[in-house]
Amino acid sequence: MKYYIGVDIGGTNIAAGVVDETYTILASDSIPTKAPRSAEEICDDIVALCKNICQKAEVPYDGICGIGAACPGLIKDGVVTFASNLGFENVPFKSILESKSGKRCEVCNDANAAALAEYAAGAGKKYHSLVAVTIGTGVGGGIVLNGRIWEGFNGAGAEIGHLVTVPGGRLCSCGNRGCLEAYCSATALINDTKEAMINNPNSKLWEVSGGIDHVTGKHAFDAADQGDVIAQNVIKRFIKYLSIGVANIITLLQPEVVCIGGGMSKEGDTLIVPLDKLVADNGVIKSLASKPKIKAARLFNDAGIVGAAADIMLDDLG
Ligand SMILES: [Zn+2]
Fold this sequence. Notes:
The protein has 10 helices and 13 strands. It has helices at residues 39-57, 93-101, 110-121, 181-184, 186-199, 205-209, 219-225, 229-253, 269-283, 303-317; strands at residues 3-9, 13-20, 25-32, 64-71, 74-76, 79-83, 88-91, 105-109, 129-135, 139-145, 148-149, 257-261, 293-296.
């Protein structure tokens, strides 16, 4: 059995896990990122963390075949060209981590790592191509084709959240209008839920959420489930916009699997079944014999560690 380490670098915490060839995490731990600080300091702490989890996993550090790291931001060929959460600009992170750790390393974008994790060990296992759409504060994406992340020639590929869904529509954080993210992020769903509540004082949403200041992305799903028509309309509209994004992805790439990730994917069939139907009804070429499967993500909090490890592991195993 070969062993690897996956490191998930976030703006607040850095998590790392020892991962075996079956993508099982044998042991993991996390430390505070303490950003902004130099990549050298961060890598020193990562190496200490790696040695610590090896001890927990009872795998000698010398036996680790490689370290993969995932972090937010734009990354090209091991260089973090821009990561606002970490305060990095043109940081050669891969080579710094390699010289500090004495291991072969890879570094990739965290949304790409999540896609790779689903490809290797989750919803896309046993398939050759997958596009992941990750719904959180924003909408992220990752494209995996034949085991390789497609990151674009400049590292800015797969920005699925910024596919234009409504021409001239809502203002997006990127400065454009009508992006998928402005309609289908958890942030957008929460705002839509609040607006529906204000316009409908009798909606069950009030009771389910406990008030306008407590609304999460889950409440509209919960109230819809209890038969609240107002909440059902919020969800319907949300899924309609998501279906446009997914249909565009399918039309462009025809991946075997489109995987919907982020906290909302825990809604499972409540989200996936109507999404699948809308995509089939409205968005895609109808005459194809075999069609992409739309699936919910499987690897929630572990996706960063598993995907980062997969990034270096897939290189190794071909
Ligand atoms: Zn945008």
